[in-house]
User: What shape does this take?
Amino acid sequence: MAERSFPPPDDLVRLQRDADAARHEAERQGHAPEARRVWQEATAVVKNAVAEHAAAGNLDPVELERDVQRAAREADASGGD
Assistant: This one.
């Protein structure tokens, strides 16, 4: 059985926050191709980092990704870094 990782590692949360910021910027720019590419690349970085962390720690990658997204939203809501 895979273990849970909450709170998730800060580096993963930071990557998710970067991807979220890239998404917001792409939306602000009306999904301009360059902004959309930056968002897609940032999202791929998060997914790869989550997969690697999950595999290394015997964690469920779906649960880890969910925990990372939740922690990023909570950090954004509280204005935390």
Q: What stands out?
A: The two ends are 32 Å apart (CA to CA). The longest helix spans residues 33-57.
